[in-house]
Amino acid sequence: MPELEAVIGLEIHVQLATKTKMFCGCELSFGDEPNVHTCPICLAHPGVLPVPNEQAIRYALQIGLALGCEIAPRSIFHRKNYFYPDSPKAYQISQYDIPICGAGRLGDVRIHRAHLEEDAAKMVHVGSSGRIHGSGASLVDFNRGGTPLVEIVTEPDLRGAPEAAEWARLLRETVRQLGVSDVNMEEGSLRVDANVSVRPAGSEELGTKTELKNMNSFRFLQRGVEAELARQRELVEAGGTVEQETLHFDPASGSLTSLRSKEEAHDYRYFPEPDLVSLAPTEEMLREARESLPELPAARIERYKAIGVPADVALTLATDPRTAGYFENVVEAAGGIEPRVLANWVTGELAAALRQAEVDGGAADSRVSPGAMAALVRMVGEKKISHGSAKIVLAAMVLEGGDPEPIVEREGLAQMSDSGELEAIVEQAMADNPDAVARVREGNDKAIGAIVGAVMRETKGRADGGEVNRLLRERL
Amino acid sequence: MIERDQVLHVARLARLRLSEEEVETMVGELSGILEHVDRIGSLDLEGVEPTSHVVALENVLRADEPRPSLPRDVALASAPEPQDGAFRAPSPQAE
Amino acid sequence: MTDLLSLTALEAHEAMVAGDLGAEEYTAAWREAAGGDELNAYLWRDEGGKEAAAIAVERDCVAPIAVKDIFTTEGVPTTAGSRILEGYRPPYTSSAVRKLVEAGAPILGKTNMDEFAMGSSNENSAYGPVLNPWDRERVPGGSSGGSAAVVAGGLAPWAIGTDTGGSIRQPAAFCGIVGLKPTYGAISRYGMIAFASSLDQCGPLTRTVSDAALLLGILQGKDPCDSTSVGIEGGIALPGREDLSGLRFGVPAELRGDDYDSDVRAVFEKTLRKIEELGGEVAEVSLPSSEHGISAYYVIAPAEASSNLARYDGVRYGMRAGGDGDLVEMYEATRSEGFGPEVKRRIMLGTYALSSGYYEAYYGQAQKVRTRIAEDFSGAFGTVDFVVTPTAPSVAFGLGEKTDDPLAMYLNDFFTVPMSLAGIPAISIPAGLAEPEGGGTRLPVGFQIASPAFSEQKLLDAAYALEQGIGFDARPGGADA
Fold this sequence. Notes:
The complex is a heterotrimer.
Chain A: E1 4-15, H1 54-66, E2 78-81, E3 91-94, E4 104-106, E5 109-118, E6 122-126, E7 137-141, E8 148-154, H2 161-178, E9 190-200, E10 210-215, H3 218-237, E11 246-250, E12 255-258, E13 271-272, H4 283-291, H5 297-306, H6 311-318, H7 321-333, H8 339-356, H9 370-381, H10 387-400, H11 404-411, H12 419-432, H13 434-441, H14 448-459, H15 465-475
Parallel strand pairs in A: 10-11
Antiparallel strand pairs in A: 1-8, 1-9, 2-3, 2-13, 4-5, 5-8, 6-7, 9-10, 11-12
Helix pairs in contact in A: 1-4, 2-3, 5-6, 7-8, 7-9, 8-10, 9-10, 10-11, 12-14, 12-15, 14-15
Chain B: H1 4-13, H2 20-37, H3 72-76, E1 82-83, E2 86-90
Antiparallel strand pairs in B: 1-2
Chain C: H1 2-6, H2 9-18, H3 23-35, E1 42-45, E2 65-68, H4 95-103, E3 107-111, H5 145-152, E4 158-163, H6 169-175, E5 178-181, E6 201-206, H7 209-219, E7 248-252, H8 262-277, E8 281-285, H9 293-308, H10 327-338, H11 341-354, H12 360-380, E9 386-390, H13 406-411, H14 417-422, E10 426-434, E11 443-450, H15 456-470
Parallel strand pairs in C: 2-3, 2-4, 7-8, 7-9
Antiparallel strand pairs in C: 1-3, 4-6, 5-6, 5-10, 9-11, 10-11
Helix pairs in contact in C: 5-6, 7-15, 9-11, 9-12
């Protein structure tokens, strides 16, 4: 049997961070007392009508443009009819055959569509357990009901669980940087469902897919998809077939349970929502959305890689636009120093120093100015101070700000420029460590460490390691 | 024409429980109405744009400005079975 | 007292503004008259209780009004004629009622109606049928039968109703009063309990065309709570046209069939001659798709209704039944006990038309017929100013006469449905009396005039001139015109 290839597509629900709901003026909230953000409209009282939130439209356009989607010149809302207590009208206003955003791409994954809709209310199941029939009840809280959502649907372009999780991270970062959502998976403002299937490698046909729900972290997304892929592979390899179903991921056990209901197959009876008129983004709406787009992670990563920043460091910077901005200021202040070196200092030593000092906020908010950071890296490059000393200076800069030079001076950390003084120390160290000298001369190169260590102790780290090595080798 | 099975299926979709008598009546009445309605089925309307709306409006939107919500006791005042500040409904039947 | 009640709403308004009529006295007289309702026309009347505080008027200066029970009124029972909303008191007031209250029109009460506005006879009310004031053995028409009956029966100076496929015009015709369905979008639908959202429109039921103009002027306007509302540019002025010279009235060949009451046709033909006497020109026009109006309407309206009425599920408000069972049992028990037979029939029809595999054949096709019908009217209005038809194919029929034959009931909307599908305004004015088939008291016949979208001013002007020319002054129980 040929190897089975994973085929994964994602459906991502993004709660928009507007002030009010999609179709009424109730404020959005999280964690408030139940049913304190409701009105006749979001409770679907008789006679009410929806009016769309213009900010939600704007945010949807921004998401669409950020994902390179074609924006529909005219889109409409449909009603998706189904009975459930979390759906007060017994229909959800959503978009169906003409979504606001059509085909697009993010990274290596094609976007199928992105559309606007409203969120359901929250249901909590209560009541007695153990009774077989009619036991228990649901309590419905309509605070969340009607929150604006953008649902993003990808093509089945992902080929493994880690890739799926990684791409979902990139998407979250992209949406976060647009500033249109809190993208908090635990709170449900970003929800990722996965459509998973397997097929013989090389095949173009799609296998029967299952839909995985409730994976409320990237780790769970990866674990859930992994578990489902394993299950499908085992099933298919044993000659079985995958059944189309919806699976619920249980984070506690890591297991998947089928949500197959006894209901007849869903028939949502979609039809155009007669209470709403069409959306036809004007040139002005599009220009406004385009102009409000920040540089997005995918573009930033490419730009940093082009100036020599390693891919992993570029990714780190791209997911943190403020630090990335700081880094760019350091590059500018540093003149000719390689961005690769500066990026390592900013994301490595500076980040570590900030953590060490328990300073809140990132580099951009710290007392270390981009100019001072550049000056420090330049001093290391020009061998005015050692790498080790620079870390000491940086720790001081994090606490007190200012330029590195006065700190170097004050702490006496300037690299020994008088080679006569250093030569004397080197010779003294050789004299103090005759065993090590002997072993090096016998060919045990590692023994040189002990002598270098002695020199560094004596110079309190002010000596340049390279220079010490050179002087020792001359003498050995 | 509509068959008995279809009537039962549609009633399930619409969350209506029909008595045996109602099912019988419904089969007859709906069939009669559909027979009349079916006349439009034979019209050649290829290429005609469907009208879902007679108003020629676009982009009628609302500013993202909060409006007061209902006090919770008012929101719950009409509820058949309020509980703990929420609307209580029977559980969906277990698997 | 009798003198006060004989004033038209416009006359009363002018007298109040001029200080010749005490508003309190006038309103009190009407409240007393409304209290004598023997027609089962009111479902609720304002008797000065606290419950009506939210819809109280600051200063009366407009004639008090009866409101179809389909408009939400904060704190005041609003049932839409359905058992499922028995005892329901909405937490908000509809835009139409708010406008009336702001204009200074006290609310007399809420009028009976076919359940969720589904019906042409008012026999589909969960609270019993309304009786026609001309003949209490007959229906007042529907679905705004209560509103028509209170105006015709001297229980209110004027009223508002809603029209989805004829629900203002047909009861106005059956009760011998004026009923106007404005252009879709002229008046806000916010707080008007939805039957078929793309067709529903609020409008006046009045004694005279001038009253209809005054009321439309108060009600019309764009409403931020209704995305589909437009309002009427320039507002509405009182009609003053004396003749019909220079105006062309088109009689659609397809809506001139022979299969309706000959007496009704006689009144219609006589009215056409009256138009010519007044200087108007009568011509034939063609609306080839209008004969399919009923078919398209009875797909589109039930389809939208099946979705609009899905919210009555026993969770948030209204009736709940079957509380001991699981969720589906509760839903089914509530809806089966809460809705009447006609509402169930239409929910079934609409659900079927939208269901998988049938959408294109029914809903899709009906929407295309709708396009054709609108195009037909546009074409006709290229050559004529108005399209005219009888309002209904018969005079008011007897209680129980058509209840066993839903299709026959639906066909009663034959003349009114095409205008609803096209979204254009149409008015019914009383044109004369005719003897019903099988004999009995002579009953009013309505004459329908339709005009292009948002041309209400022109429509009212012409209807006014024709009304003056006809001089219809018969009253229920009174002498013939």
